[in-house]
Amino acid sequence: MDPICPLALLSAGTEATIAEVRAGKEMRFRLAGMGLCPGARVRAQCVDRGSLIVSVGDARYALSRGIAMKILVGEPEAA
Amino acid sequence: MTGIRIALTGNPNVGKTTLFNALTGSRQHVGNWPGVTVEKKTGRIDWNGHAIDVIDLPGTYSLTAYSADEVVARDYIIDENPDVVVQVVDATNLERNLYLTTQLAELGVPVVIALNMADAAEAGGYAIDREKLSALLAIPVVRTVGTRGEGLDGLLDAAIREAETSPHHEHTVGYGNDAEAMIASIVDVLSADKDLTKRYPLRWLAVRLLEGDENALAKIRDSPAFTGVQALLSGIDPDEYEAAMADRRYEMIAAVLPQVRTAGAGGMNVSEMVDRVVTDRYLGIPIFLALMWGAFELTFAVAAPFVALIEAGLAWLSATVAGSIEPGWLASLVGDGIIGGVGAVLVFVPNIFILFLILSFLDDTGYLARAAFIMDRLMYAIGLPGKAFIPMLIGFGCNVPGIMAARTIEGEKDRLITILVNPFISCSARLPVYILFAGAFFGAGAGGVVFLLYILGIAAAIGSAKLFRHTILPGESSPFIMEMPPYRLPTAWTSLLHMWSRGAMYVRKAGTIILVGALVVWCLASLPFGVDYGSSASLAGALGHLLEPLVAPLGFDWKIAVALLFGFVAKEVVVGSLGVLYGTGEGGDALSMALLADPGLSAATALALMIFVLLYTPCLATIATIRKETGSWRWAGFSVAYGLVLAWLLALIVGHIASLFLGGA
Amino acid sequence: MSNVIKGVFGAVLGVLYGGLGMLQIVSAVTYLALPFVPASFFGGFVLLVIGAVLLTGARKFAQGLDEGVVFVNVGILLSVAFGAVTLLAAGAGALEAVIAEEAWSIADAITPAVYLAVIGAAGFLAWCRTFFRGLVAA
Predict the structure, then answer these.
(1) What are the two backbone dihedrals, phi and then psi, of residue C58, each rounded to the nearest 5 degrees?
(2) What's the confidence (pLDDT) of residue C137?
(3) What number is the ipTM of this complex?
(4) Do residue B529 and residue B498 come from a single domain?
């Protein structure tokens, strides 16, 4: 899937699939352990100026803008 | 009786610690893992003729091991060969939890799954077919509810059975033809090294190498197989494999899930909805501030009667001691030294415990994770991650637990900065000093002055954090990722237990250090024999005179120098010392009058003194904690020196400016 | 229908919290002495926050947004929580007064945070028990 936009730009209540994680190896391993890896379906729940709370499967994470800009997702769609 | 070692592992927030407590009860030993400030908890159980040691490993999402917690967890499992690994799995969050399971299985260690929070999953409408799950993963699955101690017997039985079964069945993820071919050739090369073969499961090592794990590469650096592996890996892009392999693991999990779990009605997720409100763009911070105010209000209000009781008890005790012990110097040692010094700390115990209880409660409900999210942007401006606000918050009660709370911060530099600025957060021990001086010299404006001192402390912390970030500890604050666990109503028992483990640590640490400090102060104030306690002729007095030139620019005389010196032990000791030096005792009004009557003291000097007390060297217990948490005397020494310089400069500047307006000095 | 009642309930309770919160702050700044509304800057601030959450809920109801119910529910929860906190603190104050042999009167415990929480508690019993049941899970 082609990366369309950073996760940080999703609006609340939309869903998308992670296409690419543009971070260092260390961060990618860590994110994969949390379920945030390419192919994962994420939903943005609360969005506040780039920081957001996303849900992946049954887990929910808060991400700061810095890291949310490095996770690229495919076409967002309303959940 | 045979001995069995069980390692308890699992993701963060799955109830692992609660399960550990339920398993081991009071037979726990808390220490540190060597070399790192990660807590190591072990416990012993006797079960059906087996002596079982349970080791609680730090929570981790994966075994890729980059944070200190993950390294500890992984190295223990690989290098220490526990007889069986029990993975605590959150039944409401199977997908992510099973990711760790796939990695454990790859390691080839015997694994038992404790399907924890099973009650919550059932309440949420999830029915999980444990037998099916167990069959699909080839791992025993036991239902547990840690908070109520359910399923512990079954868990222990399964763990023992698994530990004694050999050979152990292996069940790993298939990574597809391409990757599997690579793995096979790497294993082939590695198997030439017999030493390596003995120490590590080769398939696991090959998988890690293919994913480009630096840690795994370091493990084989000295092996004769190293060049062979390097040649194999040189032709490929490990990033590509890494993404594909993570994907495969989740695919395997995705294939398992629908077979074992029937989703309930689902519907609205309450946690999600509540988060809409408490992380609201406008209301989030006000709600947070309101809750924090409530926490402190409750802390001080509820602690007050206990403090009154302890004070009354101490007063009775020192009166009794003074009247019944001979000779006089011994009565003085016990009364002034031990009871006075240790009592000064004892008085804060109710505050500390109640504050811990409330914070544990908020933590256990899941709210503190939200608060960290809300605070992240504000803290980012200072150059620290959102989590760093929790140590600061606790610092208002006492800096010792505040500094200990910095352990949860991942980045090493972030953690150091959080620790180093914590002493500037005005702890409750400084309040008696403010009350005495602000009350004596500022009358109706006292409340405002005290408030401004708190603000000054926060400003000093923020300013110092920015300064450190730009000078000695440069860099970005680490990116913020934090799990938002579902809201839960903790049981009173879990919150009390958390309070106890944090609070007891404080009492032990503060108690022993303060006792030693109090004895040193008493010796200084009483020697040489025959002098009046703390008088000009005592060693302390001599030290005061020696230090006087240093503090003279601030308008302080030798008595204040002595009081400040004694304040090293604990800052509220400043008040008691002045009481002794002015010969009035601690009785508030008499001391206030004596201070007002001293021609050497003006409102401006009083202000300078309060600022000095706010900022100078944290107390002994805090210094010892900084030493322990940073692992070096260097940082503790730096903290002392930096605090002294900052206190001296600010007291000088503010004192002189204030004297222009208030007169005197 | 029940949404209309909840919206109105949120609006009324929100206005009460906001108003009394204002009064507490004003009397803290001006040394005004009002019966049953003790001067307290931060106490007033807390009431204002609870009022704001409730009024936000009411506003969302008026706009026809489902989210409104969540804000009203959380507002009610905060109302009950702070009522309990204030009562506990007052109880501890009474205990301290007994130990120190000082004067204490029941009037000290009657503050807006307490008597407004009675209304909040009624709302809690009426609507929120099922809502928050999902949270009570461990």
Answers:
(1) -60, -40
(2) 45
(3) 0.94
(4) no
